[in-house]
Write a structure and sequence with these properties.
Elements lengths: L1 E6 L7 H4 L8 E2 L2 E2 H10 L5 E6 L3 H9 L1 H4 L2 E4 L8 E5 L6 E6 L6 H7 L9 E5 L2 E3 L3 H11 L3 E6 L7 E5 L2 E6 L9 E2 L3 E3 L19 H8 L3 E5 L4 E3 L3 H12 L11
Parallel strand pairs: 1-4, 1-8, 4-7, 10-15
Antiparallel strand pairs: 2-3, 5-6, 8-14, 9-16, 10-13, 10-14, 11-12
């Protein structure tokens, strides 16, 4: 199945990093968060990616244009008049990556609409280029196929910002550090969509947010189902969240990293 990733936003809430690069290219532990998202899908056998570029999209194109050389061991032979080089160890990815310029200020529904021509007449994945999860994509896909509706959104329970006190008659029975789910279920991305989803997106959708009219239309018509994920999920909207993800990778405690290489 093809995987569409939104990667064109300005990332203004992470301006410390995104003044020079698109948010999906922000580094967490030596690799862009976009790489981590792609590795998640790839670990479940989904290797055909369509990246919706926009703000500083040329940096994403440069990254993949030089990917093979960037992550290979290379021997440069300067004694050779042709300045040839030999690749000694190369990355193992089997990715097919289509990079689409979907506009600088295009909203998310418009970005999705602009990549329709690169999609086949079959179900596809869609997610955001700034969030990671240990979600089981096989279970997500089975859930989507079983209910037979047009769209599935992965519902997540974010960590609370503060610790919680469980109080009984004035006595603190328990202190819970940042409990999960205190703010209920939210849209965590990791969608599965059928081609009929485009019937719920206006023809000229450049100013339309996917999360507004299209999702409301799907919901109103009973065509949007929620896959409730109880595990790890973390977006990267702030520098604090970026640093948290970076620390997890560097300490080898990142729950979403379930691949071997």
């Amino acid at each position: 199945m093809k995987v569409v990733i939104f990667a064109g936003g300005h990332g203004t809430r992470l301006s410390e990093e995104t003044s020079n690069m698109p948010k999906p290219m922000v580094d967490i532990g030596g690799k862009p968060i976009l790489w981590h998202i792609m590795k998640t899908y790839s670990s479940f056998g989904h290797n055909d990616f369509i990246i919706c570029c926009g703000y500083k999209g040329e940096l994403i194109k440069d990254y993949f244009a030089n990917y093979y050389l960037r992550y290979s061991d290379v021997c440069f032979d300067f004694c050779d008049e042709k300045n040839n080089y030999e690749t000694l160890k190369a990355p193992k990815e089997k990715w097919r990556v289509t990079l689409v310029d979907t506009g600088l200020n295009t909203q998310t529904a418009g970005r999705l609409s602009r990549v329709k021509q690169y999609l086949d007449d079959e179900d596809f994945f869609l997610t955001y280029g700034d969030g990671v999860s240990d979600i089981d994509l096989d279970n997500l896909l089975s859930f989507h196929k079983d209910h037979g509706k047009i769209a599935t959104v992965s519902a997540m329970q974010p960590l609370g910002r503060f610790g919680a006190l469980e109080i009984n008659d004035g006595q603190v029975d328990q202190f819970v550090e940042k409990p999960i789910g205190e703010r209920g279920w939210i849209n965590g991305g990791f969608f599965v969509l059928s081609p009929d989803v485009f019937n719920h997106i206006p023809e000229n959708a450049d100013d339309v947010m996917w999360e507004q009219a299209p999702m409301k239309s799907l919901s109103g018509n009973g065509e949007l189902m929620a896959y409730q994920h109880h595990g790890f999920w973390q977006p990267m909207d702030t520098l604090r969240e970026r640093n948290k993800l970076k620390e997890m990778v560097e300490s080898q405690t990142a729950p979403w990293i379930q691949w071997d290489d």
